[in-house]
Amino acid sequence: MDAKATPIDRDWWKRRPVYQIYPRSFLDTNGDGVGDLVGITQGLTALKALGAGIVWLSPIFFSPMADNGYDMADYCRIDPRFGTMADFEALLAQAALLDLKIVLDIALNHTSIEHPWFVAAARDPTSPYRDFYHWREKPNNWHSIFGGPAWSQVPDGAYYLHLFDKTQADLNWDNPTVRQHIYEAMRFWLTKGVSGFRLDVVTVISKPAGLPDVADPSPGPLYKALAIGPNLHPWLREMRREVFDHYDCVAIGEGPGLNPVRAAQLVDPADPMLDMIYHFDFVDPPQRANQPWDRVWFKSVFSRWDQAIGPRGWNTCVLGNHDLRRLISRFGDQNVNDGQVAKALAAAYLLQRATPFIYQGDELGLGDTIITSFEDLNDVWAKTTYRLELEVGGTEAQALAKAAAMTRDHARTPYPWTPLGGFTTGTPWLKPTLNKGGVDLATQMADPNSVWSFYRFALKLREADPATWIFGAYEDIAPEHPDVFVFKRGEYGLVSINFGSQPYHLCDLDHNLLEGRRLLAAFGDVEGDQLGPWACCIFGRGN
Question: What positions does the domain Glycosyl hydrolase family 13 catalytic occupy (predicted)?
């Protein structure tokens, strides 16, 4: 290599923020009410303007869409709802022009029961494809993550395993032919030009030998029991050798059920099975007296993951995604403006020592939708929850309330491009979230004080001073404070957020805290070093 040549940046995924697109709901260009690849291509300029560097697409593969694409029926084919392979190649070309990396979401734990492999396996017990899945004559006691038993029956009487919906049959990764088919599909997309994968529920692909009963088969404990099965490490190392080592790409593992210590094993630079782990410790915030959620717990999640992984490996920072209710619904305050809540949460997670993941609409402060009837539900998990509640004697009102409280539809509504919507000229596939006023891209891009503008500021700050805001050491200054989140980044970076209902003075924590630092941004009620409720100050290098 020429000594003057710029070396390849193998760690680009540390520097580039990730923006997650939910394709069905991003932008519809043909009026059928479903987002498409052409719409994503058109929308890339807006993501570049925001400051994104990586665009993660939720599944676009051929699928019956029982679980909106996470039930894949062909790993190497674009679903026609989204467009054609030519449309995808045009998307890649436009992304390259904008210096955006495209990452695909791929489900390796299971396929649709309409995948040709499963169709053959269910039809003929002597088929070689029978061993592509897990079968038993008598089910064990495992429960599906979506509710109900984790086993369903085919006409010949055999039961197949599905940790999720009955339309999603778990693959038998013990079969080396299965693994080679998966690796071949991944190489297909990497050769085409994608820059990596988000590996859906990859930590549960390895099942214990014999699939024994467990002490607690309910979804949460079962997930934790199955995470990092007996062969997960060898298979991920094999995947690294067979696939990732041959491309300049990123491997992002979704890690439900993992704690930071177990996750650190997977992203250890000395044995890098994966590059980053996408964890779920922020899913269910515990309650605290007189507060909707526990601030001390919230801060502890950042610290635990940074201490376990940050000094050597690399973290992700994820508050919202397509499986969770909106940020301001889970972490908000009904007495505070939603926009201010959204900014405070953004300051907390975008400026961590980690790659931040922004879910479509969170950069606008988009809230939950309103569910008034069963017909409003699309989410298969929510529909199962509704049905199970009726089966145990609940009323229709109780069943709907339970489903509405947990449905993933809240995060999947069409993206609001304009005050009038702008997602489609037709009828949207899912009822849009009510625009409370200004919660749309066009309005917020024109407003320097909007949530979108604050997201853009935070992402540009990372880019302008990576030594501080990307790679600088992380330290929580007041981990036990019940309301205040003050953390340092490197030598000069300081973020102070008041999540409480009473004002506080920064100097109450440390009189020297602001020495040598310059105020870079502030919002909310700020006077001197005093922050009012849900106000924030960001300090950086002095002049």
Answer: 20-412
